[in-house]
């Protein structure tokens, strides 16, 4: 069945990513950059300031929602995952080093899109009498479009996100955890899958407060450890860092640029940058607004600027560390791909073990495998937690009367998918996740554009720097 399904899904994805997704993501990013007056540039400092002012490893229980930092940590937990390591490596192998440039560009533009998502999530959220908060794309979609069309778009989005993140996406995360753990420790993938299911089930049962408490501790620690170790590898390999940067820009604009005898096309670099950029930072996808909707802030703009920082951390910082480590050790100098691309692929280097091999140039083969496996476990596990929450909120939206019963049924099915992900074919799992991720973008971006006037008005209220407010 996998053999028959894979080419069909790949064909659909190629059309979505090559002809629709690139234009939607870049278009939406440019549109909101212009409409907000370059909010990601003029208000980036405010976002960083607000993030650090609310920084905490024990934010505590919040009455009616979660703290602003917990919302950011939950969003970043979802953003910083397999896409930052395995996804970035896959983009480089398929689209060449130039794919990273397009990931950067889409992330910079996506910061404005993510600002819009967070602002609208705050603006349209609903607070129940008991203090429970509900918000996300389904709510601003039905605000933008009333009547049957709005309900259809919101329902389409809700179903897509449940399939994309609650089921397929979590399969990708558990699949990558299982493969890297198997590479590093030779643990059977099904054993790893079972452990992930048990740990995830414990957090799922604790609800949003337990999830926020876990993510606010995991996210800062995992990001700092990975970034510091990556910088150490780059320092040890400093002579290749400049050529690595040069190769990224050269491959992004020059379809004839060769790497180890392999020529990458401009379309391949662009589509991989768009597809993996979306999977990595999720700007425009409609996932992270669920977390930002629950933040306790005095005005939507506050959470909007904090949301932008999440995209920056994810792609400009974490993905860049992965990319530079991989390219500087594998694609320039005497790296395996620089010498003979085809031989490197035939020798077993792939998106699932490329980062392990790259870090292994300094830490040793076993050390590199262990380090990336541990980092990926934290990255991917935190993403599973965040994505499960986002999907769960949409289950509640679709089945308001069923309430807890619907959520419990969904949670059990999600745990089954997490386990199956550890056993499934890597390629099919990634393709299915890509398919539903891309389908989520369509209704989300339509609603964002329809409500862009609201976003522009809020951004206009905060012109200049914070000092002039």
TrEMBL record:
Membrane spanning stretches: 15-34, 71-93, 99-116, 152-175, 187-206, 218-238, 244-270, 304-327, 370-390, 406-424, 436-459
GO cellular component, one term: plasma membrane
InterPro entries: Na/Ala_symport
UniProt keyword annotations, A-Z: Cell membrane, Membrane, Symport, Transmembrane, Transmembrane helix, Transport
Pfam family, one: Na_Ala_symp
Record flagged with keyword Transport: yes
Protein name, per record: Alanine glycine permease
Species of the source: Berryella intestinalis
